[in-house]
Amino acid sequence: MKRNLSTEFVYQLAALLISVIVVHTLYVGLIRPNADAILEQQAALEAAGQAFEPSRSLFVILKDYEQETCFILMFWAIAVMGYKARTISKDRSLLERRFINVSDGMSILPQDAREHSRALQALPEEERSSLLPRALLIGLQRFGSTHNIQDVSTSIKETCESEADRLDSELSMIRYIAWAIPSIGFIGTVRGIGSALGQAHRAVEGDISGVTASLGVAFNSTFIALVISILVMFLMYQLQLHQERMVIDSQQYCENNLMAHLRTK
Fold first, then answer.
1. What is the H or E stretch that residue 14 is in?
2. Which residue, 70, 73, 95, is CA-closest to 242?
3. Taking a C-beta distance cutoff of 8 angstroms, is the pair 175, 236 a contact?
4. Residue 196: its pLDDT value, please?
5. What are the CB-based long-range contacts (under 8 Å, 24+) for 240-244?
6. 3-class secondary structure, 36
7. I want to staple 79 with a disulfide (CB 3.0 to 4.6 A). Which of 15, 151, 214, 258 is the partner?
8. What phi and psi, each to the nearest 5 degrees, are found at residue 108?
9. CB neighbours (10 Å) of residue 66?
10. CA–CA gap between residue 204 and residue 129 (Å, rounded)
11. pLDDT computed for residue 2 by the predictor
12. Which residues contact 109 (CB under 8 A, 6 or more apart)?
């Protein structure tokens, strides 16, 4: 388990670094140069006194630092959720296997628990640390020591509930990112409005270009941040749904393939 946590931490750091590099490269090489060219063209037309309609270019909407930060956090969150979804998928694949070698109508007595436990303990470490083998092993060990079927049910239920709590707690970083993205958008809003207020004297003199540009920063950053936040929250709730289903299905597997065969005599 420690090795898995260490691997996941390294993966998260690498994913963050890659997100920063990729997004910043796109901004420096593509988005900001195109946005600057569009804004310069519009400024030239305005200076020449020609009538024109300012275009709502995607490059102009995305060009500011707040939007760049939101995209970095979005891709980082997606990478982290992808890692967790892959882990859940591997755990779900174990539900298709038969870990308790008993057929319909056969019983498992307390003295048989040790034999079945050995088969689970012989599994590779990665599989043995997954929820389903752990729950089965804990149930068999409890049955062998207490000879009480109710104790087995309680231990399996507690193991599944503990795993559900652990999976939920591991989503805390993704929840923080989902909260931080709109907050960063609001920072852009405050920055844009503050800049617009700082140029209010120019608007009084008849030059409103600076005010409109600053208000564009304010509204664009909020717009992009809210759109990205909606996407991240949707993916996070889908991941949480799959985690909860995996835990419930694992508990049901234990009831059907272990609890149904337990007999005290």
1. helix 2-26
2. 95
3. yes
4. 62
5. 240/168, 240/171, 242/85, 242/88, 242/92, 243/84, 243/88, 243/164, 243/167, 243/168, 244/164
6. helix
7. 15
8. -115, 115
9. 24
10. 69
11. 41
12. 263, 264, 265
Locus of tokens 């600053």: 214
pLDDT tens for each residue of 209-229: 555 666 667 788 889 999 999
- The DSSP output letter for 140 is H
Write down the number of H helices and E strands in the chain: 11, 0
- The closest alpha carbon to 121, from 149, 103, 141, belongs to 141
CB 136 within 8 A of CB 260: no
First to last CA, the chain: 37
Lowest mean pLDDT among 52-61, 107-116, 141-150: 52-61
What average pLDDT does the structure give for the chain?
85
Q: Give me the amino acid identity at 17.
A: L
Token representation of residue 259: 């609890």
Report the distance separating Cα 77 and Cα 84, nearest Å: 11
Query: What tokens appear for 254 in the block?
Result: 């234990």
CA angle 235, 69, 88 (to 5 degrees): 25
Helices (H), 58-112: 58-62, 65-93
pTM metric for this prediction = 0.84
Amino acid, single-letter form, for residue 178: A
Q: Per-residue pLDDT for 3 more than 50?
A: no
Find, among 217, 229, 230, 233, the residue nearest to 62 by Cα: 217
